[in-house]
Write a structure and sequence with these properties.
The structure holds two protein chains of two kinds. Chain A has 23 helices and nine strands. Chain A is of the alpha/beta class. Chain A has a domain at 484-548. In chain A, strands 5-4-3-2-1-9-8-7-6 form a nine-stranded parallel β-sheet. In chain A, helix 13 packs across helix 17 and helix 21 (503-519) runs antiparallel to helix 22 (524-532). Chain A starts with a helix and ends in a 9-residue tail after the last helix. By secondary structure, chain B is α/β, with parallel strands linked by helices. Chain B has helices spanning 21-32, 46-55, 70-83, 102-107, 120-130; strands at 8-12, 36-39, 60-65, 90-95, 112-114. Chain B has a five-stranded parallel β-sheet, with helices on both faces. In chain B, helix 2 crosses helix 3 (70-83). The longest helix of chain B has 14 residues, at 70-83. Classes of the chains: A alpha/beta, B alpha/beta. The A-B interface holds A 118-119, 121-122, 124, 129-134, 137-138, 202, 206-208, 246-248, 334, 337-339, 371-373, 447, 450-451, 454-455, 457-458, 464, 467-468, 476, 479, 482, 552-557 and B 15-21, 23-25, 27-29, 39-43, 45, 67-69, 71-73, 76, 96, 98-100, 115-117, 119-121.
């Protein structure tokens, strides 16, 4: 970006500055022995053209909407359309969550996002012994199509897009969504949304797993194949770094492991015989926006550039849409504190700003009370308003990728990219991500990073306001509680559904799922048939657990 | 060589909750502090945890719960320990647990609850002061 003589001049002037700096430091040393990001990347006191002297504008930065997409995936970015404001919601039963959905839409939310309770996430029904103590607590209880019908009452599925954080039973929830739409008179070709459907990061970090990696991947590819043909507006997978980061990974690890997971999915779908340009435009991503402002922005910019290279150079995709890394962002739950919880509003606002300056397509902002429970209506309103203020008051949406060309941001983008490639190379050498997971490699890297960070917090090297510095008492805040009658109602409804459905037909449908599971046929049409007859999530998952076996946690620490 | 037995602690992740960052950090912290640590891995029922604790002859069980299921899981583990005549195994825990739930958990027999932000050192100190290795 600079001529050789310009760089020479900068170097000479930098010498002078260094002399000045030394004098100043003799009188007043720097505040800290090391200045580091939250991920422990060391940051220099000053960045100059010298730090990005090898950067080529056209090759490395370019224009928004054009390869390598460093500046964003759309040519107009937020001047054309704002990011989707999508608040992750689920509480109690489908009735309570439907009410929350309506509340959020009425307050300006622009997309839905479902948080399911643990039994649904793990493929169990509310009446399972495994569900004891968990019903409706961490999200909404969904056992059958009946619950999904209630969940979407009064919400036209041709006018809203929905993201579902669901993994082992992702295909089942997608099938239910398709049938709910069908009952509303909306064809599956019209519906839009996302299923998370990313099992590799479950083994690595989020840990809602059910089947071993290979059959898990087979069901994922079934959904990719089916949606490519039948549900063209659906994002078949949300390849997620969020949970990897929340489990304690560094920014570089989050980026590298997520892209390595993406590589494994592309390979699996191509092995099935799908053409890369058929399915790749519907792959989507999901990242964490942590508290270290510039590190996050650099991570998002590096992610886009890396994925574009991976798709074009490694997988030889030709469709520009296959090269685009489109992503949802959630502000960092793990950066929030139970102490002085109102401070969480501020943290979330900075993190949301980083996500927007990093060019996100969709955003969830955490609520101030989420270190205690699911958010109250008041808390979630502040979190949504945080996005609206960012979008419509601060002016940061006026121009595209405003930090491009910053010596620091460009240098940090390059550094994060280089370090992430090193991890990807290492994983390739192990034989790919499934092999790496079987060796416990990403799991141990993350556990190590989490432990290192905790020790830095304990020693005071990393400051968390209200936790290890500026500690004061705070009065308790109001928190959401799950009412016991919600669980009773859920169990009653499940019993009633099982009593009134055509049990003979359900049995047949489950038999067909078993047969297709063994034969290798695409499972989606059979799952759709089964949920239409009100087969429960656990009934379908039990068939899979029998056919494919279970995955149990190796318990690395 | 000291003949004294080390403190043995079982770190348990009960229920369907997958948040294991805290459990793993504390397991490493206890190990570095010189305790013997057994980690159950995820998705354990209270029965599995209690059986493992008895089988491994531990001095204490530390439960980590972030899913909101603490009001069922903690009392259930304590009930099962009593049922199996192993009530001398001390139960403590941590996770996302609202302040107002702590008194009833303590009443049920949970000896200590460590909420978010607790330094590893504080938990280690509590263990040293409150848990003695059995002879």
């Amino acid at each position: 970006m600079f001529k050789e003589e310009q760089i020479q001049k900068v170097k000479e002037e930098k010498k002078k500055w260094n002399e000045e700096l030394s004098k100043t430091l003799c009188e007043r040393p720097e505040r800290l022995p090391r200045f580091t990001t939250v991920s422990d990347l060391e940051i220099k006191p000053l960045y100059t053209p010298e730090d990005i002297k090898d950067l080529d504008y056209s090759r490395d930065i370019g224009f928004p909407g054009i390869y390598p997409f460093t500046r964003g995936v759309q040519p107009s970015m937020y001047r054309g359309r704002l990011w989707t404001m999508r608040m992750f919601s689920g509480l109690g039963g489908p009735e309570e969550t439907n009410k929350r959905f309506h509340y959020l839409l009425d307050h300006g939310e622009t997309g839905l996002s479902i948080a399911f309770h643990y039994p649904t996430l793990m493929g169990y029904d509310s009446d399972s012994p495994m569900a004891r103590g968990e019903v409706g607590k961490c999200g909404v209880a969904v056992d059958t199509l009946k619950d999904m019908e209630i969940l979407f009452e009064g919400i036209p599925l041709d006018r809203v897009t929905t993201s579902m954080t669901i993994n082992p039973p992702a295909s089942i929830l997608l099938a239910m969504y398709i049938v709910v739409a069908e009952k509303q008179g909306v064809s599956k070709r019209q519906i839009g949304g996302t299923i998370q459907n990313d099992m590799l990061k479950e083994f690595i970090a989020q840990k809602t797993f059910m089947l071993p990696p290979k059959p898990s991947l087979r069901i994922i590819v079934d959904t990719i194949e089916y949606c490519t043909r039948e549900v063209p507006r659906w994002n078949t997978i949300s390849i997620s770094g969020y949970h990897i980061r929340e489990a304690g990974a560094t920014a570089v690890q989050e980026l590298a492991f997520t892209l390595a997971d993406g590589i494994a999915y592309v390979e699996a779908a191509m092995e099935r015989g799908l053409d890369v340009d058929e399915f790749a435009p519907r792959l989507s991503f999901f990242f964490d926006s942590h508290i270290d402002f510039f590190e996050e922005i650099a991570k998002f910019r590096a992610a886009r550039r890396m994925w574009a290279k991976i798709m074009r150079e490694r997988f030889l995709a030709k469709n520009p849409r296959s090269w685009m890394l489109r992503f949802h962002t959630q502000t960092a739950g793990c950066s929030l504190t139970a102490q002085q919880p109102y401070n969480n509003i501020i943290r979330t606002a900075y993190e949301a700003l980083a996500a927007v300056l990093g060019g996100t397509q969709s955003l969830h902002t955490n609520s101030l009370d989420e270190t205690y429970a699911i958010p109250t209506e008041e808390a979630v309103t502040i979190a949504l308003r945080t996005q609206q203020i960012l979008a419509e008051e601060t002016g940061v949406t006026n121009t595209i990728d405003p930090l491009a060309g910053s010596y620091f941001v460009e240098a940090l983008t390059n550094e994060i990219e280089e370090k992430a490639w090193e991890y990807i190379r290492k994983i390739d050498e192990m034989g790919g991500m499934i092999k790496a997971i079987e060796r416990g490699y990403p799991q141990m890297e993350i556990a190590e990073a989490a432990y290192r960070f905790q020790k830095q917090v304990d020693s005071g090297e990393k400051v968390i306001v209200g936790v290890n510095k500026y500690v004061t008492d705070h009065p308790p805040i109001p928190i959401w509680r799950m009412r016991p009658e919600i669980e009773e109602r859920q169990l009653r409804r499940l019993k009633e559904v099982k009593r009134t459905r055509n049990n003979e037909k359900v049995k047949q449908c489950l038999e067909e799922i078993r047969r297709a599971s063994i034969s290798g046929e695409n499972l989606m049409p059979y799952i759709i048939n089964a949920v239409r007859e009100y087969a429960t999530i656990q009934e379908i998952c039990d068939v899979w657990r029998e056919v494919f076996g279970r995955y149990t946690d190796p318990g690395y620490f | 060589m000291s003949t004294e037995r080390k403190i043995r602690i079982l770190i348990g992740k009960p229920g369907l909750d997958g948040h294991d960052r805290g459990a793993k950090v504390i397991a490493r912290g206890f190990r570095d502090a010189g305790f013997e640590v057994i980690y159950t891995g995820l998705h354990q029922t209270p029965e599995q945890i209690v059986n493992a604790a008895i089988q491994e002859d531990v001095d204490a069980i530390g439960l980590s719960i972030l899913s909101g299921a603490h009001d069922y899981v903690f009392p259930e583990v304590i009930r099962l320990l009593k049922e199996k005549g192993a009530e001398d195994i001390i139960v403590f825990g941590g996770g996302i647990i609202p302040e107002e739930d702590i008194p009833s958990l303590q009443q049920a027999g949970v000896k200590a609850i460590f909420t978010p932000g607790t330094p590893i050192e504080e938990a280690v100190r509590w263990v040293k002061e409150n848990i003695k290795p059995r002879k």
